[in-house]
Amino acid sequence: MAIGVHNVTKRFGDFVALNDVSLAIPTGSLTVLLGPSGSGKSTLLRVIAGLEQPDSGEVAIFGLDSTALPPQKRGVGFVFQHYASFKRMTVRDNVAFGMKIQKRPKQEIRARVDELLELVQLQGLAGRYPSQLSGGQRQRMALARALAVEPKVLLLDEPFGALDARVRKELRAWLRRLHDEVHVTTVLVTHDQEEAMEVADRIAVVNHGRIEQYGKPRDLYEHPATEFVMTFVGPVTRFGEAYIRPHDLEVELEPNARYEEATVEKVVHLGFEVRVELALAEGEHLEAQLTKREAERLELLEGQRVFVRPSRLTEVEEDAPGARVAS
Amino acid sequence: MSQQAHADPLASSGRPASRPESRGRAVRALLVGVALLYVLVLIVAPLAGIMYYGLRNGLGAITDTFSQPDVTHAFYLTFVIMLITVVVTTVLGLVVAFVLARDRFPGKSLLSAFVNLPLAVSPVVVGLMAILLFGRGGWFEPFFSAQGIQIMFAIPSMVIVTIFISIPFVIREVVPLLEELGMEEEQAAWTLGASRLQTFFRITLPNIRWGLFYGMALSAARAIGEVGAVLVVSGQVQGRTETATLYILRAFDQYQPERGYVVALTLAAFSIVLLIGIEAFKRRSLKRAGQE
Fold first, then answer.
1. Contact (CB, 8 A) for B245 and B75
2. A77, A154 in Cβ contact below 8 A?
3. What is the ipTM of this complex?
4. A299: alpha, beta or left? (left if phi > 0; alpha if psi -120 to 50)
5. A22-53 burial, b if ≥16 CB within 10 A, otherwise e?
6. Which residues of B fall within a CB distance of 8 Å from A72?
7. Which region holds residue A234: left if phi is over 0, alpha if psi is between -120 and 50, else beta?
């Protein structure tokens, strides 16, 4: 176990940012803290880094109680949402900063910086200043800078949050590959569930200062422990009393006893996916997600009468794998 | 009201598109004229006057003035007071600026307001406050008397009042810079192993450097120019507690205006050099800020 968080509580004035949180993060994993803004996920990351002091509880890094250690002594690498580049330094000096503090020999620093710049694909930009880099490049520089001191754990606080959608997608795929190469225990904070599903080995869903569920991405999607996890991880639509995934809604043209009648309100073509907005006879709205092929077979038109039924109900399971505060 | 009613139809019957534009240009020209005249009359003219009177009697008057031991001592004293003031207001100003920009505590806005107090209080009042604290019967007088340290009518009191008056400059320049910078760069440095001191010298100081120099230059200029407070506390002992500005006052009192002009011209020249420095710092500070 790389990081152990035990019963951590943190308040800012009257606001409870973390409410008795416990979490165990396995060595070598890429764990995502996922939650809406204000949920406490960033605070949890900053408590692990030592940038915030918890009011109560402990943080252990590789078995060493680090609660009282300053961030300098924790062996963590931290990457900030807004890069936190050292503005007055070149890319090379940014990456070399930690090693210079450690007073490593010059040749060693030079060689290591070159190696890291290649790893983050910034070779050739060593002499630039951060203001001359794009957002994506700055964030890769920040990552190289954090990795330079060979941290025991790497902490990323919404690292792609300030980037545009295309760069964000590229970078997270790249980060996943990088993690498979470097293997340093990594914790990433995000509010983007798609990002979490794509990069994570394990996801901890954080809400109102608590961990709602902690488990593998697929378990969270298929066996959500709480209604919050169900609605926050993956798309949902309401069918009567139950929540279902929109792709679990079957749409047919012929009436059938087990199906309910609905009217097509809107058809949105998104490429492979076709989103169909429907209204049930009682006026209730729901959404179906069809493949392009299915949609072509049905030839749905707005205003058309169809018959729907959920092929599978995703139920909130309090005893789901990793439900509540598991370790 | 009625005049406007008459004017409006006239305006619209003329050249409606160009009228407002040319009027705007006229207003701008007027404003530029006022600004130029204001600066010319109030700043350039006095400066020219000092230069004329200071240089009127040629090199002889200048060498005569600087051969006076009172004059050289007055410049020496002004320089010493300025140096101590700049060092103290820089070091303590940085501390206060960090507290104001980074910490949250009850009474912070009060502290922030108090920092600007020296700008609002008349220097003569500052001098009076020093007398009340350190003069005969003052709160701190027994303590210093017991140590055999003379504060009033001596250099310590002159330094104290000058520091008091120069407190705001560094703080006012540095606080907004620190607030704008935020803490992320510093926190990144911490996680990379840098101590707080290393972080200050390697990360924070380079970021606030030009603003800090600007504040220091303002502080120095204020220290050199101070008269009122120093006049009250110094006792004006010739050749001992007389700064350059006090010397100028005495020169005129004693009907030796020629020496007064030369000293004044020297101070003005120094201020102009400082001013050029200030402008250069400000420009660099703004340019750097704009770069990000």
1. no
2. yes
3. 0.86
4. left
5. bbbbeeebbbbbbbeeebbbbbbbbbbbbbbe
6. 190-191, 193-195
7. left
Q: Which residues contact A266 (CB under 8 A, 6 or more apart)?
A: A276, A277, A302
CB contact (8 A) between residue B191 and residue A101 = no
Which chain B residue has its CA at the smallest distance from A75's CA?
A: B191
Contact B191 A76 (CB under 8 A): yes
Hey, which bits of A29-142 come out as E strands?
30-34, 56-61, 64-65, 76-79
CA B165 to CA B160: how far, in whole Å? 9
Question: Measured between beta carbons, which residues in chain A are less than 8 angstroms from residue B191?
Answer: 49, 51, 71-72, 74, 76-78, 146
- The CATH code belonging to domain B68-291 is 1.10.3720.10
Distance CA A309, CA A260 (A): 6
The residues spanned by each domain of chain B are 17-56, 68-291
Q: Which of A74, A76, A86 sits opposite B203 (nearest CB)?
A: A86
Q: How many CA atoms lie within 13 A of A245 on its CB side?
A: 18
Q: Is B13 on the interface with A (CB under 8 A)?
A: no
**Partners of residue A286 on adjacent β-strands:** A278
pTM of the predicted model over 0.90: no
Tens of pLDDT along chain A (327 residues) come to: 899 999 999 999 999 999 999 999 999 999 999 999 999 999 999 999 999 999 999 999 999 999 999 999 999 999 999 999 999 999 999 999 999 999 999 999 999 999 999 999 999 999 999 999 999 999 999 999 999 999 999 999 999 988 999 999 999 999 999 999 888 999 999 999 999 999 999 999 999 999 999 999 999 998 999 999 999 998 888 887 788 899 999 898 888 878 888 999 999 999 899 999 999 888 889 999 999 998 888 888 888 899 998 887 777 776 555 444 443
Ranges of beta strands (E only) in B5-148 are none
Output the CA–CA distances (angstroms, integers) from residue B16 to B3, B9, B11, B13, in the order listed.
19, 10, 7, 7
- Distance from the A87 Cα atom to the nearest Cα atom in chain B, whole angstroms: 8
Q: Which residues contact B236 (CB under 8 A, 6 or more apart)?
A: B242, B246, B250
